[in-house]
Design a protein that fits this description.
Number of helices: 6
Pfam families: FGase
CATH class: Alpha Beta
Strand order of the largest sheet: 1-3-2-6-11-9-10
Shape: globular
Number of strands: 11
Protein name: N-formylglutamate amidohydrolase
Organism: Rhizobium setariae
CATH superfamily: Zn-dependent exopeptidases
């Protein structure tokens, strides 16, 4: 089975590929777009605009960081409802049948052929693009610092979240430690370690696969999406994050 038609465009975009920074930005949940072959997965339009389909504001923040830091950015062009590129193929929520309060009918009892097509045409090209970029940098004797950008909903299953920015890490906390210290010093946003998610929630797949496995400094950033719902908010948050990242890596402004 072929999932994506050539007219739909590929699953991966590279922004500022010639960026001079050591930082490689990743945005796995950049888009709410679904492949035509999957229709709407049985969901109403409102659900496809909600957080279950993507990370609202995350791509805009990542793009602003790409400019501010002169960093390359790799992002996914399809919704995490088709395939969540921050999950390995064996994960039950790589193609979730349930997300928050929503049942996703088109993800219930997925035909094995369709499941494999989603892996082959959405996940594999995305993770290959990251791996190839890191390999190219290694060959050129360039350091890579992996930074993934996400957003989270202010209320989850009826519970309000007071954290505004989460700095997440897996086994390697070196960069996260520095970022938390500098974020606290700035005092601009409520910033916490491994909130609202952490490694136990299965959210560090990209960090483990491409960061830990290659010995790279790595971190995952989560921003509460009500803070980045418009361009003004996105710029404020991006400026804050750019400053924290620069200070943490001792990069001149």
């Amino acid at each position: 089975m072929q999932l994506l038609d050539v007219s739909e465009g590929g699953p991966v975009s590279l922004v500022n590929g010639q960026g001079k920074s050591d930082i490689l930005l990743i945005c796995e949940h950049a888009s709410r777009r679904l492949p035509v072959a999957l229709g709407a997965l049985g969901l109403e339009p409102a659900a496809l605009e909600a957080h279950i389909a993507w990370d609202p504001g995350a791509l805009a923040v990542a793009e602003l960081l790409s400019v501010a830091l002169d960093a390359a950015l790799i992002h996914q062009n399809y919704s995490r409802l088709a395939y969540d590129c921050n999950r390995p193929p064996e994960a039950s929520d790589a193609m979730p049948a349930q997300s928050e309060i929503f049942t996703i009918p088109g993800n219930v009892d997925i035909d094995p052929v369709v499941r494999q097509a989603r892996i082959d045409e959405i996940y594999t090209p995305f993770t290959d693009a990251i791996a190839e970029t890191i390999t190219e940098r290694n060959t050129a004797e360039r350091r890579t610092v992996l930074v993934t950008i996400h957003s989270f909903t202010p209320v989850y299953k009826g519970v309000a979240r007071d954290v505004e920015v989460g700095i997440l890490h897996d086994a390697d906390a070196r960069l996260a430690d520095q970022m938390l210290e500098h974020a606290k010093r700035r005092g601009q946003f409520v910033t916490r370690r491994n909130e609202p998610y952490g490694p136990a929630d299965g959210v560090t797949h990209t960090l483990k696969l491409h960061g830990l496995a290659n010995g790279l400094l790595n971190v995952m950033i989560e921003v509460r999406n009500d803070l980045i719902k418009d361009e003004a908010g996105q710029r404020v948050v991006a400026d804050f994050l750019a400053g924290v990242i620069r200070e943490s890596l001792s990069i001149p402004a």
